[in-house]
Amino acid sequence: MPGWLDLAGTNHPDHQLDAVFYDRIRARRPSPRPAVEITILPGGARAFEVKAGQSFRVVEAGRPQIGTVALWNAHGPRESFNAARTMAAAACFIEPYVRLWSDVPQFRPLATCIEDTVTTDPAESEFHHHCIGSPCSTQTMERLFGLPGLDSCHAHLERAIAQFGLTAADIHDVVSVHQKTRLDPETGRITVSRSDAKAGDYIEFYAEIDLLVAVSVCPLGDGLVDPRDPLRTQPKPLRVEIQETGVDPRPSPAWADWRPSWMGSWQAPLATKAAR
Ligand SMILES: [Zn+2]
């Protein structure tokens, strides 16, 4: 037994990552012609459904542009992407084979990253795509830049999901795509650099269940756009491409029902005591 525990490891036979399964999806998908193409303009977000077994890419349409991706179960949006569960069960930085998990009680992969074309220098200790942040909001922008009423991904997402009957209360954790980020091991602080993503670069996710997905064009542009700068570069569009992969997802293994033992461990004695 080593002197540490890898939280992303598993001894559960049904929960091993099958890399060959995802390699097969990557090899089979009928690119380059996407089934659906959505352009997301600066100043906004778009929400759309992705069926289980389809994939979606977030593509750089022009100059480097970071994006914010939120995911829900299309049939029950109380289940959504959970960053803390994902960081524990998989990783903080998103790359091929990293699965995006929902919270308990479902606690299952909603989507799996199958490809990332953004080049990151391994010597830099920085990564593109992560879930260690949160969607920028008008409040966080005011805290960062000292200006009230700034545009934000949170506001974009709120407007985009309204057509599906969701509100700001349904916005939780997100994946920040194309954003170049470093987690300082000494201070624990997060720093952002200018994205290295090039036109045509993309990150692609395979939908494990039917998903509602929302993608926002971040007002921070390449990651370092300062809204106080009158000469700042303006954010650029992002493009989403939805594809049929031709591969059906496998059902998520069910968790053992924990409730009988839980009831037995403390609620039953209380009930016995009350009956006396
Ligand atoms: Zn943002």
Ions, cofactors, ligands: which are bound?
zinc ion
Element order: H for helix, E for strand: HEEEEHEEEHHEEEEEH
Number of strands: 12
Tally of helical segments: 5
Q: What would you call the shape? A: globular
Q: Which strand-content bin applies to the residues?
A: 25-35%
| Biggest beta sheet summary | 6 strands, antiparallel
Low-confidence blocks of residues: 266-276
Helix content: 10-25%
* Helix/strand class: alpha+beta
Distance between the termini: 47 Å
Structure description:
The structure is a single chain. This protein is an alpha+beta fold and 276 residues long. Helix content is 18%, strand content 26%. It is built from 5 helices and 12 strands. Strands 1-12-3-10-6-5 form a 6-stranded antiparallel β-sheet. The protein is globular and about 60 Å long. The chain starts with 18 loop residues before the first helix and ends with a helix. Mean pLDDT is 90; it is low at 266-276. Bound molecules: zinc ion (ZN). Zinc ion (ZN) binds next to loops.
Structure in a nutshell:
This protein has 276 residues and is α+β, with helices and mostly antiparallel strands. It contains five helices and twelve strands.
Please supply descriptive tags for the structure shown above:
disordered C terminus, globular, binds zinc ion, 276 residues, six-stranded antiparallel β-sheet, single chain, 26% strand, alpha+beta, 18% helix
